[in-house]
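>> received
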Amino acid sequence: MKILATSDLHGNITQYKKLLNFIINNKDIEAIFIDGDISVRRSILRDAIIKNIEEKENRIVTPEEKTEIESTKVVDKQYEWFTDIFFPLMKQSSVPIYMNMGNADYKINLNRLRKFFENKKEEIDIILLENNKLIPLKGKNNKEKEELYLYSLSNVSLSSHRNKDWESIDMKNDIEDIKEYFNSHPDSPKKEAHYIVINGIEKRILLSGLKSKNIEGKMILVNEQVSLSQEDTLEEMLENFEKSVSPDVFSKTICLMHAPPYGTPLDIVKGGEHAGSIAFKNFINKNKPLISIHGHIHESVNMSNVFMVDNNINSSKKQSISVSIGNDFKSKVFSFVIFDTKNVLNVQRYQI
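>> returned
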């Protein structure tokens, strides 16, 4: 099966139009994967609402109003972007679109958007994937009837970003490092970012941030702390998934994991540090999925000049690779990869 995969468009319509035009002109593509950060960022949505109010009412919105707008209006505004802008554009695609939410996409919108796209299947097959689930993969044709599976994971490791819907503690033993820091710094507010040594690595993290909630029927953003429970760590999440799947399935599985594995060319940020997940790296090295696709770190490919890692380079096992999309949504240039599930080692990265 020939698949196009991309990530981190963050609502960039110019890039979405390039994606659509490429699909229209390349009939051999059988499925599209969008690996997270599909919609417009919170700050852009908030500022658009504020601008509309100021233009209509001919006044300046106060700082207090801006905070209220961000809390009460942005989640619904993102939902409307999917239904009113993304859907009318992408329904012109002739191939299925599989989408994994990213840390900029609000969790509370997941189920209602899944229902929306399911009700529109007669117009276009858009599948908004359920988090931490494995499903059989069906492409446009899949003439050879390959047995393939798709695993999606939106969660990323703890960062200094304000959005916390999909943020998790990486490793179980990280919890003690975080607790120890705040116990020894009792005056450090959890709503502010701090440099903390976690698992031997100094990271700038924000423990408490914005999560999307349904409060009495209203979709809002509230300040809430990231869970410090072991069962909510990326490590345990992946361990539990492993237990639910037969080992022979992994060689037939494509993983859409929004964050990249730690300590690889796929997770290097502008400062040169690695910002990926140790749990992801351990999971990939142990289970060798057919291919794992990652986004989240927009600049990774530019920093390392590498977009693909061969997970079996020193092994005789079956093919297994990891790729970083490295798409910069602030650019008019659109980045994506194309691979054939029969020969993933021949994956190609394009910029148009």
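>> The chain is about 30% helix and 25% strand.
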